[in-house]
Amino acid sequence: MISLNIEKTFGFISKEKVSAYEAEVKAAQEMLEKGTGKGNDFLGWLHLPSSISDEHLADLNATAKVLRDNCEVVIVAGIGGSYLGARAVIEALSNSFTWLQEKKTAPVMIYAGHNISEDYLYELTEYLKDKKFGVINISKSGTTTETALAFRLLKKQCEDQRGKETAKKVIVAITDARKGAARVTADKEGYKTFIIPDNVGGRFSVLTPVGLLPIAVAGFDINKLVAGAADMEKACGSDVPFAENPAAIYAATRNELYRNGKKIEILVNFCPKLHYVSEWWKQLYGESEGKDNKGIFPAAVDFSTDLHSMGQWIQEGERSIFETVISVDKVNHKLEVPSDEANLDGLNFLAGKRVDEVNKMAELGTQLAHVDGGVPNMRIVLPELSEYNIGGLLYFFEKACGISGYLLGVNPFNQPGVEAYKKNMFALLNKPGYEEESKAIQARL
Ligand SMILES: O=P(O)(O)OC[C@H]1O[C@](O)(CO)[C@@H](O)[C@@H]1O
Questions:
Q1: Where along the chain is the active site annotated (predicted)?
Q2: The domain that contains 340 carries what CATH number?
Q3: What would the pLDDT profile of 250-266 be if each residue is shown by its tens digit?
């Protein structure tokens, strides 16, 4: 199970001040449990892990098998919470070069519907031309432009290449039970569908079929992922005392840092496989807390890579940041630094050492340097990258986010600000129904 260490924040905020959040956190947890807080119609994620049935997992695994048996490539079409969770888990657990390996144990997973780049979509459709591919179309609203546009292209190509009957077998829709264009199309075409519950918002949906189906298709054990999340649900439960509850402590610490002028949280990893965990986390916290002119800005870096770009800013720039490091204790493979007779690179002092030992010293050295430079530091340790631990990590962040949003005094479960760009885009594109907005926006150009 993951563990949290906040010792290296204490030069900046006091332990007593963090402990003093106990009552506030308790109130926030009660609001979540009793559904008395803002956004209380979106609390379906709270006890989701412990309520997932074996039958549901079996249905997901069976559908994943159909896709695995019939596809060389599977496209996950979705944006935001409708793709980031799946990508986060799949990339965290996959071989870094999985798509280059000759002997494949699972379909190549590709993501679309998360941008409107003509080149991206053209290149994707070109790549797919000789591939037996399938599509998982994921959209809670069923009307998101980016995803709908990509799906329109992919559906046609799949039907043209594989025939309508096979396309029906290898296209799966994950969407609302009743409404939205994705639902209408799936029902009309007879696709297998999974439902995103009404009371689970996109960014909290990784443990619904939104995340679970693609993760299973990619060959990972969703039963273990859910088990890890369920154990974390217990560990972060409202009955767990504040001092032993990682979600409570994380939420309290980051809010105390925020109240002391630390407006930016940088999620750090020392393992590139975690890049998309950070992307998922950015949406979770950004959409949940960034409103009412408030909220910690969630940023992320991949170290040691970004020590050679953002490292300077973090060490010596404006002191408005703190770091939360995700550290993986045990790596999955062993590789030692070889000795070299000529030693031209001067690295023989590392000969015989594990590469991970060098990485761990980079991590420790960075932590000490950044704390010395005025950057408070929290550390989340994962024993290793596994389905179980990643499941726990995701739920930990979700629970802490719910608590943290209530500590901040916002509704952590809406995202009204996202509509502004959509309204302008539709007005600029003369979407029917936007005539007034179109006129108004044209007058501004
Ligand atoms: O699943 P949908 O409805 O396509 O939405 C995708 C994403 O878009 C947003 O609604 C923001 O526009 C996110 O909250 C969500 O995760």
A1: 287, 422
A2: 3.40.50.10490
A3: 999 999 999 999 999 99
